[in-house]
Write a structure and sequence with these properties.
Helix content: 40-55%
Number of strands: 10
Strand content: 5-15%
Structural class: alpha+beta
Strand order of the largest sheet: 6-7-8-9-10
Number of helices: 18
Shape: globular
Radius of gyration: 24 Å
Largest sheet: 5 strands, mixed
Length: 464
């Protein structure tokens, strides 16, 4: 369902008014591009994570799960916003005007956060183009080596995609492309760039560059042996069985995960910031009673508490409002610039906020779940711990030549939360496929050190 001319005109007027208000309040978003999309398109982008990305069955699975929840009325995505410059926001074509007004104010908050938060400063702002080029390379590999071979390799790569080290962030390709000449930017450059297809020799040169960088890193790593957190990079550099195209696919998966990583580290503060500003921007307008009721209902849904998990919108909003009230607007903008979820919770989550939001710790006792602690410091510390490493287990490579047999030895840096053992047994065979030889993983189970060993598809365990 597309918007009528009158609806589109009203939305354009609202966007101009909301943007002007946001700027007057001190926000500094990227230039914005808004797209009105049908539900299938919006949920496809949500499942893939970007409007341009390589294909994989897991994205299709995510799409059908999300779409089914929408069809059954269990959940609804109203918008999606992409960390790019210009910043792209996608609005559902069935949204009402008030919904779109709230969403525009919300995504302006996200765009301001993307632009100014320290954790996003090294993310490439042209990631739509980069992902499109990467998808083209992977399609070429499917033509050369077969769809099944590429899909199987992506299964293995995506199974461990979160095991990277953001401190190794590299952002190649940001240098000025001299082949483009010296003309100034034009108003349609972002559109022309989407249509530009890399030439064959450019693709080959890009792959040669990747291979050269991989060799240089491997040589440097051999000179200074130490535990390595970046499992993807270690496999790229050192696996004896990977072909060049497979190393390139690992490079693609790793670079895309580096792009998404800051969003994992800032979920609470990012959503809290956007919610803080959509609330204040909408308060600047004279809504009629029906519009006020609709807005209040929408906002209440955004910050509604959950009995089983933390609502990042509610927690982030509560902390940021407390900072604004106690320390002032200047301090609030400074927090937006330098904090992650962990530092925000550690520095600014107070007993009053924990009590007001009724946050608590619960765990399974026998056959049921029970509240086990409501002490505010225990709640705060558990929330901080849960945000370690983006919420994923911290696993390091200890040795790529374990006992001089060329076997890979990994260690889980145990911080109180045990690994999901079913996931371990499903994932280790993928690591084995990428390494080509037996893989060992040391972790803690029930307070005891345990070593899992994978030889092809067979996973065994022993106590250490």
């Amino acid at each position: 369902m597309s918007l009528s001319a009158l609806e589109r005109s009203r939305l354009e007027t609202a966007i101009e008014r909301i943007t002007e208000t946001a700027l007057n309040l001190g926000l500094q978003p990227f230039p914005m591009r808004y797209e009105i999309t049908p539900v299938d398109v919006l949920y496809t982008i949500g499942a893939y994570g970007m409007p341009t990305r390589f294909s994989h069955w897991s994205f299709g699975k995510a799409f059908y799960r999300m779409k089914m929840q929408y069809d059954l009325g269990l959940s609804k995505i109203y918008e999606l916003v992409i960390n790019t410059n210009p910043c792209y926001a996608f609005l559902l074509d069935t949204n009402t005007l008030v919904q779109n007004e709230l969403i525009v104010a919300h995504v302006l908050g996200h765009s301001d956060f993307f632009r100014n938060n320290a954790y996003f400063q090294r993310t490439p702002r042209d990631m739509v183009n980069r992902m499109a080029a990467a998808a083209d390379r992977i399609r070429q590999y499917e033509r050369e080596f077969g769809t099944e071979a590429v899909e199987s390799f992506l299964d293995a790569a995506l199974a461990i995609q979160e095991h990277i080290d953001p401190s190794h962030f590299s952002n190649p390709g940001q240098e000025k492309d001299l082949s483009e000449g010296t003309k100034g930017p034009g108003p349609y450059d972002d559109l022309w760039a989407l249509d530009r297809e890399p030439m064959v020799d450019e693709k080959e040169e890009a792959l040669r560059t990747v291979m050269r960088q991989i060799k240089e890193r491997a040589d440097a790593r051999k000179r200074g042996k130490r535990p390595e957190k970046d499992l993807l990079m270690f496999l790229m550099d050192n696996s004896p069985v990977l072909e060049d195209w497979q190393r390139d696919v690992l490079t693609i998966v790793r670079q895309e995960m580096l792009y998404f990583w800051p969003q994992l580290e800032t979920k609470i503060i990012n959503e809290g910031w956007a919610t803080f500003w959509h609330l204040r921007i909408m308060r600047e307008f004279d809504l009629d009673p029906a519009e006020s009721f609709e807005f209040a209902k929408l906002h209440a849904g955004v910050v509604a508490p959950s009995p089983v998990q933390v609502n990042p919108y509610a927690v982030g909003l509560a902390i940021l409002e407390d900072i604004d009230n106690r320390l002032g607007r200047e301090a609030l903008f400074e927090v937006r610039e330098i904090e992650s979820d962990q530092s925000l919770l550690r520095n600014y989550l107070t007993k009053e906020i924990v009590d007001r939001l009724d946050l608590y710790l619960y765990q399974r006792v026998g056959s049921e779940y029970r509240v086990v602690d409501k002490d505010w410091e225990a709640v705060r510390d558990r929330l901080i711990t849960a945000r370690n490493n983006g919420g994923f287990p911290y696993i390091v490579v200890i040795d790529g030549d374990h006992e001089n047999r060329g076997e890979l030895y990994l260690r889980h840096e145990f911080e109180g939360a045990e690994l999901d053992l079913k996931y371990v047994e499903k994932t280790l065979p993928y690591v084995h496929a990428l390494w080509g030889r037996p893989v060992h993983l040391e972790t803690v189970v029930d307070g005891l050190r345990v070593q899992f060993t994978c030889q092809e598809d067979r996973v065994t365990r022993r106590f250490l």
